[in-house]
Fold this sequence. Notes:
With about 80 residues, this protein is an alpha+beta fold. The protein has one domain. The protein has helices at about 20-25, 50-65, 65-75; strands spanning about 5-10, 10-15, 35, 45. The strands form two sheets. It has a two-stranded antiparallel ribbon with strand order 1-2. The termini are far apart.
Amino acid sequence: MVVLKVRKVGNSLGLVLPKEVVSHLRTGEGQDVFLLEGPDNTYRLTPFDPAFGKKLVKAEEIMARYRNTLRALAE
């Protein structure tokens, strides 16, 4: 367990992540992280965009629909 302290940053509140947490998340300064709300008032911090999965499914549908066209363009 890692305890974080809420601090004032300008007119907002923020959390400072220890180096170990940043390393574990494989993220760094200027990169996005996502706070996902879970069941029972829980939260999860992740560097992975939850919307990316939906975009990938849509891209796979398009590639399947236009498979022959994409194959001809690749030649």
